[in-house]
């Protein structure tokens, strides 16, 4: 009986334990399934967001690579190109507040998907003028346009020109005047870029917050780091795509390429700039598709279900109890007064103004903000016109220029950003050390940039512009100097730009101004003979010949271009190293509950005071170095045909260095304030975050919990540190 009772007792106990084991097994299996679904959903979102970052970075960098092509295609000055480039920032600013405030309350993935569609629509709109404004017409003498008529370039006897040729020429001018409205179609490029800015707006704030909300806390930094890494890869492919399209003729598929009498090395060459926008638009559409099928909410990880805030956020909230408690009481009092929208706005306003006053009362934040604004003016202006500078200074083609920037400069920027974060993490550098590292990288970067003044090319010898027809340096009025005794008998126009290269190695603005009496051949193989101005430098008594196209730069120019590339890559790397420490400095020197607000003000200031104006005034300054302006068919100034190489070098590099030097002074002021606040009597006060200061004491625990801020640093226009 005892045995049977024991067996029954054991059997009963086993039966009672078994359901508990099953229930625990079920809970574990459900938890694992939930974890798998959570991880699966967040990884799908991570892949989709990374692809979107790649798409927007590709289209943005491709726009930079086509600015010189757009300038020639629409016959507009550099200052207008700068306005087109800055329109992206304007579009972004139009809705950034609405997206940031309302976006988090709506379906974030679908808003990002809608943004991708808007971004792709803007990209397609940029390419649309190519299909409506007619074929590209460059300036060429009729004999080089595969014409069978033998026409003398120097129209000494106008009766020798056949009536049909003149009528055709006049007909082309009239047709051009009728289509002159097409030159104003650059407005569609501006509107398309504006639309790109609007569509790009929700990607960063909504995408990053979605990742941070539903990812496991220790994985959030890794995920955001992956997204930013892909964002660096995008510009590489953007510039390489620009290099490929620049080799293709603008009207490829619409005209017979054998009839094109210029090559991609010609200053009048315009590549298939529109083709890359179609490709980028398709990529943007594909990138937005997955977001329409993602849920509004993903299951949160188990660790985050118990609290709505992360450990770091809760730590931030408890660091400043008095201010937060007062702010909360103030909100409660106002909420009890009424529930209307106007009262809610008043509540927000009452919190906004003290926060703004507190932020602007922080000397470190204000000084660093000023330093960043001025430095980004320098960097954005420099990068926007870097392709133009390489083309005009070193005589390189647009295709080669974009290839070099995409394959050499941008990887150096990415490596510099990674190095800066690695140094901060490995050596556990505090705030004061971050300020020193940021200042040092800026100082040595701009010091290296100073050496580029000695690595320029001299002006090409262009008769009547950089040298006279007698070989002396040209100092008088350029337009009047185009005419000389050797071409006085020719009926030439000073507005033409159809350069030819004489046997004497001098470039002449046109065959007529070179005094050429005859021509042989057609198209690219046209040769001009009996040119009275060619050869006057060496043997005035003998006339010589010339070929189509400008002469190449001096023999030293390829070597100087190689030196420029080496210094440019080192400079890009050096400047990029300081970006991460500077961003950490910004985060550490403001009160925790003001971080989001401070970053928003920082981004807004960079976009408004640097992203928009820098390309414009850099373009205006570059326009002052133009020696020969093109002419539109119905009158008016077109795009610049020839720049003064020396003046361009001093204006472009000088403006960059002046702005960079001013930013360094502000960075020194930041370091001085930090040193002052890190003194023993102020250390306790600084550590508590009072008076807007920041403590420079190295706190290992705080730094360890904040490592993800180093790994995921991002600042506006990061890819512009070229």
Automatic annotation (TrEMBL):
Residue span, Kazal-like domain: 480-535
Protein name: Solute carrier organic anion transporter family member
GO CC annotation: basolateral plasma membrane
GO BP annotation list: monoatomic ion transport; sodium-independent organic anion transport
A single GO molecular function term of this UniProt record: sodium-independent organic anion transmembrane transporter activity
Annotated transmembrane regions: 40-59, 80-99, 111-132, 220-250, 270-294, 365-383, 403-423, 435-455, 560-587, 599-622, 651-674
Species the sequence originates in: Galbula dea
Region (Disordered): 300-324
Similarity-based family: Belongs to the organo anion transporter (TC 2.A.60) family.
Record's keyword terms, sorted: Cell membrane, Disulfide bond, Glycoprotein, Ion transport, Lipid transport, Membrane, Transmembrane, Transmembrane helix, Transport
Subcellular localization, as worded in the UniProt entry: Cell membrane
Catalysis performed (reactions): 3,3',5'-triiodo-L-thyronine(out) = 3,3',5'-triiodo-L-thyronine(in); L-thyroxine sulfate(out) = L-thyroxine sulfate(in); L-thyroxine(out) = L-thyroxine(in)
Annotated Major facilitator superfamily (MFS) profile domain residues: 45-678
Membrane topology reported for the UniProt record: Multi-pass membrane protein
């Amino acid at each position: 009986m005892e045995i049977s009772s024991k067996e029954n007792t054991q059997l009963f106990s086993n039966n009672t334990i078994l359901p508990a084991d099953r229930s625990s097994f079920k809970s574990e299996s459900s938890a694992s399934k939930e974890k798998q679904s959570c991880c699966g959903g967040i990884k799908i979102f991570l892949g989709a967001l990374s692809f979107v970052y790649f798409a927007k970075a590709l289209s943005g960098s491709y726009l930079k690579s086509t600015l010189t092509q757009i300038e020639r295609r629409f016959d507009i000055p550099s200052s207008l190109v700068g306005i087109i480039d800055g329109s992206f920032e304007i579009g972004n600013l139009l809705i950034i507040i609405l997206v940031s405030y309302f976006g988090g309350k709506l379906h974030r993935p679908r808003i990002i998907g809608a943004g991708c569609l808007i971004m792709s629509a803007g990209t397609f709109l940029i390419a649309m003028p190519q299909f409506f404004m007619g074929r590209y017409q460059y300036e060429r003498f009729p004999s080089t346009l595969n014409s069978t008529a033998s026409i003398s370039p120097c129209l000494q006897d106008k009766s020798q020109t056949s009536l049909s040729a003149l009528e055709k020429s006049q007909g082309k001018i009239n047709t051009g005047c009728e289509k002159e409205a097409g030159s104003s179609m650059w407005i569609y490029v501006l509107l398309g870029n504006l639309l790109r800015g609007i569509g790009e707006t929700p990607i960063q704030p909504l995408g990053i917050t979605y990742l941070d909300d539903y990812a496991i806390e220790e994985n959030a930094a890794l995920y955001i780091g992956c997204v930013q890494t892909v964002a660096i890869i995008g510009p590489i492919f953007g510039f390489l795509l620009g290099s490929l399209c620049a080799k293709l003729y603008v009207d490829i598929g619409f005209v017979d390429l054998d009839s094109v009498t210029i090559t991609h090395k010609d200053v009048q060459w315009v590549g298939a700039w529109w083709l890359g926008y179609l490709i980028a638009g398709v990529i943007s559409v594909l990138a937005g598709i997955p977001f329409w099928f993602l849920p509004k909410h993903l299951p949160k990880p188990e660790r985050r279900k118990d609290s709505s805030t992360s450990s770091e956020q809760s730590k931030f909230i408890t660091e400043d109890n008095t201010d937060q408690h007062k702010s909360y009481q103030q909100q409660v009092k106002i909420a009890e007064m009424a529930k209307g929208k106007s009262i809610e706005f008043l509540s927000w306003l009452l919190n906004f103004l003290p926060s703004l006053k507190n932020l602007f009362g922080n000397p470190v934040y204000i000084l660093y903000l000023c330093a960043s604004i001025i430095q980004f003016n320098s960097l954005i202006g420099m990068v926007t016109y870097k392709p133009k500078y390489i083309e005009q200074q070193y005589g390189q083609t647009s295709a080669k220029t974009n290839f070099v920037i995409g394959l050499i400069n941008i990887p150096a920027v990415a490596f510099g950003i990674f190095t800066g974060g690695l140094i901060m993490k490995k050596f556990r550098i505090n705030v004061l050390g971050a300020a020193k590292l940021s200042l040092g990288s800026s100082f040595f970067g701009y010091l290296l940039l100073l050496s580029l003044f000695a690595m320029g090319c001299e002006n090409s010898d262009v008769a009547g512009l950089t040298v006279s027809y007698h070989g002396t340096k040209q100092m008088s009025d350029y337009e009047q100097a185009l005419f000389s005794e050797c071409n006085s008998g020719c009926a030439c126009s000073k507005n033409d730009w159809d350069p030819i290269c004489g046997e004497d190695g001098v470039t002449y603005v046109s065959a007529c101004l070179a005094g050429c009496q005859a021509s042989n051949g057609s198209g690219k193989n046209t040769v001009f003979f009996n040119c009275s101005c060619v050869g006057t430098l060496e043997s005035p008594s003998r006339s010589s010949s010339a070929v189509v196209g400008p002469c190449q730069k001096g023999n030293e120019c390829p070597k100087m271009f190689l030196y420029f590339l080496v210094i440019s890559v080192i400079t890009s790397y050096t400047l990029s190293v300081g970006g991460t420490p500077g961003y950490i400095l910004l985060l550490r020197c403001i009160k925790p509950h003001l971080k989001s607000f401070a970053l928003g003000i920082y981004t807004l200031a960079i976009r408004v005071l640097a992203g928009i104006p820098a390309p414009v005034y850099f373009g205006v300054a570059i326009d002052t170095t133009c020696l020969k302006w093109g002419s539109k068919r119905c009158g008016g100034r077109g795009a610049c045909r020839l720049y003064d190489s020396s003046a361009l070098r001093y204006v472009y590099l000088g403006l960059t260095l002046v702005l960079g030097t001013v930013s360094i002074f502000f960075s020194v002021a930041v370091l001085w304030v930090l040193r002052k606040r890190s003194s023993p009597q102020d250390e306790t006060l600084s550590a508590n975050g009072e008076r807007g200061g920041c403590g420079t004491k190295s706190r290992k625990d705080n730094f360890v919990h904040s490592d993800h801020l180093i790994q995921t640093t991002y600042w506006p226009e990061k890819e512009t540190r070229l």
